[in-house]
Every structure is written in structure tokens, then in C-alpha cells.
Amino acid sequence: MKKAIITGIQMRNKGSQAMFLSLYFALKAIHKDCEVIGFAFKTDSPEQYAFQLLPHDDYTRLVFKYGLQRVPLLTPILTRFAGLVRSTDKWNGKVAEMDRALREADVILDASGYTLGSGWSKQGGAQLLDTIKMARRYNKPVVLMPQSFGPFDWGEDDDAEFLERVKKELGYCSKIYAREREGYDCLTALGLDNVELSADLVIRENFFPTPSDVFEDGSSQPVEYPDEGSVGFIVNENLFRIGNPDAVRSLYARILDRLVEKGEKVYFLNTSTADLNLTDQILSEAKNRDKVSVITGDYSSPELIDMISRFKYVVASRYHSIVFGYRTGVPAIIFGWAAKYTDLASHFDQKGYVFDVRNADAEDIFEKIDVISERHEEESRLIKHRLSEMQSSSVVKDALAALPGMRAVQEQSEGVLENA
């Protein structure tokens, strides 16, 4: 395989960044000389990274959705106009680069986290369908790597029509990996027979890069590491959308106070730039705010994994902050609202520590905090054991083997490596 494109990713959300990195380095390990290009919809200064990122955002999506890249004189004019409106030159020459990459690609691998389901609008899900349609137009195979799907109950008049489109586009995929049983059931209920269950990419793949592997200059920024044996506190703005905002904020503050009163050293840590504005809001309601340390900074996912590995446990709501902890054997008290949280915890026999933010009882949470404080070492050993079992096989290798004609190529490549 000479060239692969990874879609559905961004660099600002560190969970999305981690999925991209897991997939990127797994592909490079299997096909050392393969060129891997990321089509990213949110990234700052893409030149800082040790891999190529092209802007797959609102503007370029529009271009490829309507085939405007096929009109040579029109695209440069549109790009210049869009750049003037947005005061940016980030699209200059990029449509042509993306078109060339799509023409030369052997496969498109989508690493979205969750876009297709009634937890989001149909417009969000349509972006994934547009990506598949783009692959179809270029006659390229596409694989949807482990991500969440469903439920499909928007309660709108055009639900049936939209689901017909979902079935048509997803039916084109060589393979679809659903992270949760709920998603698997939703997709197979549509009659799709190309669906498999798989845990998250960041869990399934054994290798994960260091910070120096991520940046072009091979360096990493100074990291404000938490004390060993402290407790991490990681929030998620989406809980304020799903639950009652005042109740969620109050619950977070009460948990912080409880941890401090237990004598824990607590660090407030953000794993997504979207959550930065929540820190002061939550701390303003905590009685012991002066005893809570706050770690700020836009850290890469490898840096965040290193930081989280120092906690004895975390209280977390960001899906991939929990994944980051599980990768290094760190247990979690989990606040969520979707099946992805319970399914993730179930992989590690941790389901008893999951709470739905819409009906969470503070006293039940406090009781579980007491339990995990006593059992964190036992839970850590269990998590590490389950992790080793899940990493005994690679979902990326499985995905590539599902491509037409790729299994024989992959087996030949592995044979060469074994005989080297």
C-alpha cells in the first residue's frame, strides 16, 4: 500500500488526535513506506506536526461535495474569496493537493469519534456520509474505524428518508467498526452486513507515540506534571448540554469538595480546548477551590497520557481521558450519558463506576469514590490485564485485510519482516 488518507479527525480535541496517531503509526508499522495524509477539520499550525494534514473543513467539504474541484478556473477564485472572507490563506493550493491525494490513495480510513446518531444533528451525521460519498466518487475503498453510532431516533419527519441514505452510503464501506453494542445493533438493523464490534483504536493498538514523535522538530513543550498518587478531575462541556447545566456544575463542585475533604491532592485537567471555560465556573462553586491545582496548557495526547498515568484514579467525563487512563492502568469514576461510557468500562470490568449525569445521585458517587480510593491498586491490575488481552490483535491489520486484494499483500509484507 502506497498511500492512505485518514478522515474525521482534528488536533484540538486530544481524543480525536489520539485516534489519528494510533491509526497513523499502526499504518506506518504495517507499511513502512506508505504515505499517510490526515484530512483534518480543526487544526492550528499544521506545519508544526511530523505528518501531513490537509484542511477537510466547512469550505473544502463544500468543494468536494459539489465536485467544484473539477472546475479548474472556478476553484482558485472561490478559494481566494473564501480566504478573504475568513482572513486566512490556509486553503491556498490545498484543494488541488487534496484532489491529488484522493486520486492516488489506496484507501480512506475514517476515524471519527461520534457523528452519526441522534445524539447529534443530522447535519453532523451527513458529514460522515459525505466522506463516504467522496470515496465512492473517487472509486476508493473506505473503512470506518472504531466509532460510535446511533441511536437513530431524531423524531423528525425525514428520519426514514435519512436512514435510507445512511444505509446506502454505509453499504459502500469495506468494513465498519462499531465501538458499542448499541451502535452495532442499530447498523445491523438497517440490513448492513459489513459491521463488526471493536473497542476504541487507542485501546486496541499496542503502540502509541511519544511527544517527540508528534512534532516536526522532534521536541515537546515543558509539561506541568501532577504529583504521583494524586487524583485527576476532567470535565466535559457536553454534559452541560445533555444534563441540567446548574445541576451538573453543582455536582462537579460537590465532588471536588468531597475529594479535598478526603485528603486527596486534586488536579483539574483539561483534555479538550472546548472545556477551558468550565474551570472557573466549577471552581467558583467549590468551597475548597484554593486547594485544587489547575493544570493549563494545550498538551498533545501523548503528553496527556503521561500526565494521567501519574494519577491513582480520575474523575472524568471526556471519553478519551478515560481511555488515556485505562491505557496506563488508571481507574476512573465516570460521568457520561451514552452507551459508549458503559461499554468502555465493561471492557475493563469497571461498569460499577459509571454514572449517568442525567440522574446521578451525589451520595452514590461519594460511596464509589470511597471504594475506588481503597481499591485503586486492585482495579489498576485488572485494567492492565484486560488491556493486554485486547491488544493481542490489531484492528488496523484487520481493517486492511478486509480491503479487496490487501490480505495477500499484507501477509507477504509480514513474511518479509519475519525473515528480515
Characterization of the model:
There is one protein chain. This protein has 420 residues and is an alpha/beta fold. It has two domains: 3-206 and 393-419, 3-Layer(aba) Sandwich (Rossmann fold); 230-390, Rossmann fold (3-Layer(aba) Sandwich), CATH 3.40.50. The chain has helices spanning 14-30, 58-65, 74-86, 94-104, 122-137, 159-170, 181-188, 201-204, 211-214, 238-242, 245-261, 278-283, 301-308, 319-327, 339-347, 362-390, 395-401, 406-419; strands at residues 3-9, 35-40, 52-55, 107-110, 114-116, 142-149, 175-178, 195-197, 230-234, 266-269, 292-295, 311-316, 332-336, 354-356. Strands 1, 2, 3, 4, 5, 6, 7 and 8 form an eight-stranded parallel sheet that branches. Strand 13, helix 15 and strand 14 form a beta-alpha-beta unit. The model is unreliable at 416-420 (pLDDT under 50).
In short:
This protein has 420 residues and is α/β, with parallel strands linked by helices. It is 47% helix and 16% strand.
What are the defining features of this structure?
Rossmann fold; disordered C terminus; 420 residues; 16% strand; 18 helices; alpha/beta; eight-stranded parallel beta sheet; 14 strands; 2 domains; six-stranded parallel beta sheet
What's the architecture of the largest domain, going by CATH? 3-Layer(aba) Sandwich
Number of helices: 18
Q: Give the overall pLDDT as a whole number.
A: 92
State the shape.
Answer: globular
CATH topology of the largest domain: Rossmann fold
Structural class estimated from helices and strands:
alpha/beta
Low-confidence segments, ≥5 residues, pLDDT <50?
A: 416-420
Please state roughly what percent of the residues sit in beta strands, choosing from under 5%, 5-15%, 15-25%, 25-35%, 35-45% or over 45%.
Answer: 15-25%
* Total number of strands: 14
Terminal CA distance: 19 Å
Q: Describe the biggest sheet? A: 8 strands, parallel
**Multimeric organization:** single chain
Q: Classify the helix fraction into a percent range.
A: 40-55%
